[in-house]
Amino acid sequence: MAASLFCPLKIRNVEIRNRILSTGHQSFLAVDGRIGDALIAYHEARAKGGAGLIIVESARFHESSISAAPEVHAHTDAAIDGYRLLAQRVHAHGAKLFGQLSHSGRCSQLRTDGVRGVVYAPSSIPDNRFHTMPRAMPTAMVQDIIESCGEGARRMAEAGLDGVEILVSHGLLFAQFINPQTNRRDDEFGGSFENRMRPLTAALELCRNAFGQDRVVGIRISAEEHETDGMDADLVLDVCRYLARNNFVDYINTTTGSMAGPGGSIHVVPPMELTHAYVAPKAAAIRAEVNVPVFVAGRINQPQEAELVLAKGQADMCGMTRAMIADPDMPNKARNGQFDDIRACIACNQGCIGHFHQGASITCIQNPVSGRETRLAPASPTLALKRVLIVGGGPAGMKAAVTARSAGHEVILCEASTQLGGQANLAAQLPGRAEFGGLVSNLARELDQLDVEIRLKTKVTPDYVRQIAPDAVILATGSVPFTPDVDGLGEIHCTSAHEVLGGESGLGKKVVVADWRCDWIGIGVALRLAQNGHDVQLAVNGLHAGQNLQPYQRDVLVGQMHQAGVSILANARLFGADADTVYLQHTITGDAILCDSVDTLVLAYGTRPEILLESQLADSGIAILLAGDCLSPRTAEEAILEGMRAALSLDTNSSLEKSS
């Protein structure tokens, strides 16, 4: 079923056991610029899980690209020990390890101690995403950049890595040199194609000197940058032909997108709205023109998809990074034919790149252990077995049940409705987000495998709890829609986002969506209604639509709303309504904003905790633990993490005092 996927690949004298690749990606697990225990444990889990090749996250090799962010630095010999330990741990499990060298050039917001640093690039061409105006690098600085790149490679080679790649992807520094729209230089590093290639080819030669003839040197490049001033597919093809023909690289690792603008950045870590394996045809076009292996990444989250890409001859290796963030054991499961046991990535981008944009370390909303390997472990069998009642079958309750049962506890999971999943089921009804339902499917499969007793259509009361006689109760009762105290809601046709997603019909032609949350719900409902023919105004109680969303996800949705004709009112707080008018108030000035001739008002106002059973059991003498929205309404990420922690605490807290 996955014959191509588990065929070894030999590049020079480095044999990779399969075609599954963890691409270089920022984890924010580095400490003071160095690789430490957390980052080592993170990658070791993927090596143990069966990955063929791991490319460790991009390292900053020159002082002009270093900021206060918790990224890996390779500009001094202090980096060597961390790389060496990482290589030893990855190699112990049979995987190979490559390094990655990067400089962002104009795509930077360098800050140290809160102070903006000087941004350097080939030329003073502004960046359209970070809004920086870079300073053109002096010729001597370009030479220093090249030499520093070689020194970074030397350190990785000395540490025992199997190879190295230079980032030419996503509109970063080396791409900026190659691209005539961002390189207006008149020295030996500008002008002709060969001159614009010189910084990269000179750096690659130094990488080859460092790694020798037995180990591997390559690049990562965007097959297309999707920006008006970015490299197009024809230029990228010329670059790849030139590098392969002149033996500068042993492989070409393809992706797509650019950091330099919002249109290109949505492809850097493509969200679920983008098609599975959509970069593979672009990789195939490059592969047809070069004589070196070609890797590809971009929404390949299942081994069956990777197998198809390989079988078609579109690429030689498949980047499945997020697939292994969600399930580090995915390669081993696929090799053993356990495809149904894989916890599939849903491309929600919340815990992986979403955490990066929050300045937090990497994780996965489905797999809280990811990125927390040194401080959070899956449940292990316990001798202190307990009878556990879990109330609520949303993500928090489901994860609590999986975790508790994995430890050996007797578990009864009760859900008042007819199905598991809670509000995750509603989220899957949003346009382009059906894949979010995979979160529920993955948890449901684990519950089934563990033979957890599930009682649907069961309203839990204090009497019911006494009848079950549990040693502990985990409350995951979720939350219910919140209706603001606003005058006139009884006069206008008013409904909630939850009801719209649940299938409510009868909405009028002109709709105002009052979006207090500034997340998926308001945008998603507005987009759905517009696509169904309604005239929609989205009134956002924030600076812009999707303010609380991961930027790539937000930008996809904002673009779709523009195409669907949704009108957006920013800084607009719901103030009141009458029969056909919605009254808004500017959140900063307090000025009135009127939306007239309105047929329907939709409230995207979030939820409030469901705490009735908690209050009823307060004096029961039974240990009570809380998880998810009943503690405080947030997202599925917090619900799953808290469900897991609540269940783990059954073993660690012998007294099981009430959680609050």
UniProtKB/TrEMBL annotation:
Species annotation: Shimia gijangensis
**What name appears for this protein in its UniProt entry?**
2,4-dienoyl-CoA reductase
Give the required cofactors.
[4Fe-4S] cluster; FMN
GO terms (BP aspect): fatty acid beta-oxidation, unsaturated, even number, reductase/isomerase pathway
Q: Which domain of life is it from?
A: Bacteria
For this protein, the record's SUPFAM superfamilies field holds: FAD/NAD(P)-binding domain (SSF51905), FMN-linked oxidoreductases (SSF51395)
| Keywords, alphabetical | Flavoprotein, FMN, Iron, Iron-sulfur, Metal-binding, Oxidoreductase
Domain NADH:flavin oxidoreductase/NADH oxidase N-terminal: start-end pairs: 4-338
